[in-house]
């Protein structure tokens, strides 16, 4: 005797949708594992993943009343597809798109930090030219410059500008706030700033490459 899973057309469509949802989750899990293991190329992975995500979103929307929780559906049928849940629910975009976005964000962040470093170099050098040589005037400028240089991870740890700014900050920290740099000290600091700035600008193309 045949056992019917459904009593009417509506129930039949529901079970068919359940089967399709199950298949999409399983297929996404296999695709994610294949990509991670380099079995398929990024060019093959991305369009297939986009199709699965699109189908999933459409189906999940259709089933929102009968399957309010995809996680519960996943657990009920003991699917064991963590990568698929991450891709379909948490991320919502292929891993290749995630990687490109992360790279673009990193590049944007680096560009902003480079601009900040340049501004801090110029501000410090201009301040010395304007005879702003009191410790409480110079120290904050060098601290800002040092902080911005340290944020830029494309520079080596022993980069000239980092080392020299650290030395100058340590020297200024031993002086009183109202103390002023001598003409010789101000001249040397300006020279170190200019030298570090030139090294910084020269390092950028190499670092960027």
UniProtKB/TrEMBL annotation:
GO biological process, one term: protein transport to vacuole involved in ubiquitin-dependent protein catabolic process via the multivesicular body sorting pathway
The VPS28 N-terminal domain, residue ranges: 1-99
Compartments reported by the entry: Endosome
SUPFAM superfamilies: Endosomal sorting complex assembly domain, VPS28 C-terminal domain-like
Entry's Gene Ontology molecular function annotations: protein-containing complex binding
Assigned protein family: Belongs to the VPS28 family.
Function: Component of the ESCRT-I complex (endosomal sorting complex required for transport I), a regulator of vesicular trafficking process. Required for the sorting of endocytic ubiquitinated cargos into multivesicular bodies (MVBs). Mediates the association to the ESCRT-0 complex.
Quaternary structure annotation from Swiss-Prot or TrEMBL: Component of the endosomal sorting required for transport complex I (ESCRT-I), composed of ELC, VPS28 and VPS37. Interacts with ELC.
Protein name (database record): Vacuolar protein sorting-associated protein 28 homolog
Originating species: Actinidia rufa
């Amino acid at each position: 005797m045949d056992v019917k899973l459904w009593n009417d057309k509506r129930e039949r469509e529901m079970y068919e949708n359940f089967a399709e949802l199950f298949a999409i989750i399983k297929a996404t899990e296999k695709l994610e594992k294949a990509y991670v293991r380099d079995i398929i190329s990024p060019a093959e992975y991305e369009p297939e993943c986009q199709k699965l995500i699109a189908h999933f979103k459409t189906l999940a929307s259709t089933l929102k009343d009968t399957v309010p929780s995809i996680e519960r559906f996943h657990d009920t049928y003991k699917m064991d597809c963590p990568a698929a849940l991450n891709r379909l629910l948490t991320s919502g975009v292929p891993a290749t798109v995630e990687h490109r976005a992360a790279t673009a964000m990193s590049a944007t962040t680096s560009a902003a930090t480079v601009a900040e470093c340049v501004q801090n170099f110029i501000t410090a050098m201009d301040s010395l030219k304007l005879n702003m040589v009191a410790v409480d005037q110079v120290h904050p400028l060098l601290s800002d410059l040092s902080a911005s240089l340290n944020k830029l991870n494309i520079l080596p740890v022993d980069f000239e500008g980092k080392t020299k700014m650290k030395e100058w900050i340590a020297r200024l920290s031993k002086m009183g706030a109202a103390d002023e740099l001598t003409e010789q000290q101000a001249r040397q600091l300006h020279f170190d700033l200019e030298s570090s700035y030139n090294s910084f600008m020269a390092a950028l193309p190499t670092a960027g490459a």
